[in-house]
């Protein structure tokens, strides 16, 4: 008999009048807001301008959603294109199914476009966003809890996840809550990147590379625990191989970047020409005001000195007259 377990929600959607509020979509939206908010704070701390992160995210987020969905549909095509399945379901992103690998890859393309339009180096922007992305993933994983999906092997541990749905081949019971494991891991990754960035002044994309490598290290063993259908290569799930490959690439980038471009970028965002001219004009005005003030102070000092000399002369004249 199970003494304790994590209950699953009976429904993954709440009806707010005519508007359905789906738990999965809600978690994704909240995660995006957290990533942009934290990324903006970190960008400003690095010398960037407020609002730049949000402007570039307008490109990165849609690309990321499309890429994440494409990766999921391609790697799990049997869920949508096998016999008895409706291919239209491939477009129902709100029902779950986003591959982080595709989301990051396509999101990077969107971010590159946004950065190029603003004249900003993509690695610097990615460094600012890195921990926020990890926290966004931590929040987004709770969408799987709402959908009762992506759980691990059966277990009777006190923190086991109680699955009640019998749809799509599910077997009701208690399982490892891999969504929770990954959520906690992502939180740890986010704080690790923040600490390492402050301690070692990571730049030129190395904070982002650290996030990628750390996430992959956790995703590998968590993915190995899952029991949902997946393609296997040489006995391992496809996502495990993907995690290994991306981990190696991130570590190689981190090492090479540290050798070729040590330290952190001094300037992450150029000042627009119009504002640069305005700032220069303000500087000239300030300099002119300072020069005028210095001239006035010098004149006042001179007048005071002349006044003092005149007083001394008058005093000396009066003394001489008295003596005579």
UniProtKB/TrEMBL annotation:
<feature type="binding site">
    <location>
        <position position="141"/>
    </location>
    <ligand>
        <name>a 1,2-diacyl-sn-glycero-3-phospho-(1'-sn-glycerol)</name>
    </ligand>
</feature>
<feature type="transmembrane region" description="Helical">
    <location>
        <begin position="94"/>
        <end position="115"/>
    </location>
</feature>
<comment type="function">
    <text>Catalyzes the transfer of the diacylglyceryl group from phosphatidylglycerol to the sulfhydryl group of the N-terminal cysteine of a prolipoprotein, the first step in the formation of mature lipoproteins.</text>
</comment>
<dbReference type="InterPro" id="IPR001640">
    <property type="entry name" value="Lgt"/>
</dbReference>
<comment type="pathway">
    <text>Protein modification; lipoprotein biosynthesis (diacylglyceryl transfer).</text>
</comment>
<feature type="transmembrane region" description="Helical">
    <location>
        <begin position="179"/>
        <end position="196"/>
    </location>
</feature>
<keyword id="KW-0472">Membrane</keyword>
<keyword id="KW-0808">Transferase</keyword>
<feature type="compositionally biased region" description="Basic and acidic residues">
    <location>
        <begin position="287"/>
        <end position="317"/>
    </location>
</feature>
<feature type="transmembrane region" description="Helical">
    <location>
        <begin position="21"/>
        <end position="40"/>
    </location>
</feature>
<feature type="region of interest" description="Disordered">
    <location>
        <begin position="266"/>
        <end position="324"/>
    </location>
</feature>
<feature type="compositionally biased region" description="Acidic residues">
    <location>
        <begin position="272"/>
        <end position="286"/>
    </location>
</feature>
<dbReference type="Pfam" id="PF01790">
    <property type="entry name" value="LGT"/>
</dbReference>
<keyword id="KW-1003">Cell membrane</keyword>
<keyword id="KW-0812">Transmembrane</keyword>
<keyword id="KW-1133">Transmembrane helix</keyword>
<dbReference type="GO" id="GO:0016740">
    <property type="term" value="F:transferase activity"/>
</dbReference>
<feature type="transmembrane region" description="Helical">
    <location>
        <begin position="238"/>
        <end position="256"/>
    </location>
</feature>
<feature type="transmembrane region" description="Helical">
    <location>
        <begin position="52"/>
        <end position="74"/>
    </location>
</feature>
<comment type="similarity">
    <text>Belongs to the Lgt family.</text>
</comment>
<protein>
    <recommendedName>
        <fullName>Phosphatidylglycerol--prolipoprotein diacylglyceryl transferase</fullName>
        <ecNumber>2.5.1.145</ecNumber>
    </recommendedName>
</protein>
